[in-house]
User: Fold these one by one.
Assistant:
Number 1:
Amino acid sequence: MTHAVPPGPRGAKRRDRSYEESVQIKRFISALNQAQVVHRASQRRLCDLLGITIGTLTKYFRGEVLPTKVGLGIQACLADVLGVTLDALMNYYQTGEYATAVSLDEVESWIRSEAGQQDLPALMASLQAAGQRWVDEGGPEPLATKVERWDWPITEVRDSGVSDRFREKIGLSDEALERLCAKGEYDEDLIEAFSVACNYEVEAVREAFEQRKPIE
């Protein structure tokens, strides 16, 4: 017996992101995290520095906005906070190359501060969701490669009874599932696709992916 596949949200227009766009979003989130560390700032303080609302910042951390869709005024503020030029920040989104002054000592000091403790859960969730991490030059390999394998999502999709063609169409490819299970890498598109295929609430899927635990 197969699961019924629920219709998508009314009026929603789905757009599959390219690999390049996904990478740019991850770099944008990384830049925001670095800005917090540089100024030992809470998320609300970072909003003040960038001239945005907490709701907008939440969308940024969730990977819902391409950096190319963010206003130049906000990007200029972010570049200023990071101590780089706007051109250097734009180049970082494209190539991943720009020197950051954030050291591991600064990261540790910020996390131990009052602001760091307050925002630590949200920060860690955004880092995991985006696949982001701070690694000192020449340091250990990225954390994502050390995540213990988790096969529940693959099993759940297999048991859902949806066709391979449908899975590919909504962005729930074998490659995306393998990255999730083997490395803990996922984005909002994968969360949405999994919830549609397996008939779960989006928030339940997001929590399961973050905690790497099955949905009860």
Note: Residues 147-211 form a domain with the 434 Repressor (Amino-terminal Domain) fold (CATH 1.10.260).
Number 2:
Amino acid sequence: MDNDSAAGAADATLHPDRTSTTRVSLLEVFLLFSQLGLSSFGGAVSAWVHRALVERRKLIGEAEFAAALGLARIIPGANVVNLAVMLGYRLRGAAGAVAAGVGLILGPSLVAIVLTILYRRWGGSPGSRAALEGAAAASVGLLIAMGLAAGAYLLGIGTKSRLWTWRNAANTAVIGAVFVLIGVLHVAMVPTVLLLTAASIAIAYVFPLPRDTSHAGG
């Protein structure tokens, strides 16, 4: 490993929320989101996007992905398409947004047409029902894993420099409030997210955390 590679690896270890400086091509953006669209069974596309862009390729930071996901859920349109467009724009501008959006929906749309034709003929079989139920269960597990990973990041779990502070307690309260209001009480998503986003911004302002030292050891 040369000096530049070693330095890059060390920086990624100390600062996992920093995105990669590697510039991806439009074709790579299109193929990446095409692969995500075709492999994301069960509806958990956002979880697969998180795994591919944040965890594996380090192209998008954890905080940046969380912000994009929140915006994608409160603006009009399909959530996952909104997310793909925003992340594609982040990677390659307007052209990247188009490449990501088209890549995400083109392949699955063609597959959906074929599967619809097949389902009309064999949809009532026990095997097809078992396959659909298995895909749904897997997607739920992946969404839970993504939520736990994002929550651990926000609370600094697993790092040496972040202690259980008032900031972390406030973040926990926000996470709990979202779960109770939307998941339990079924309050409308848009006003809930807007209100708690304002609260999160206030928390980050009152309890600032230096970006460059938030993940460093010691």
Note: The chain has eight helices and no strands.
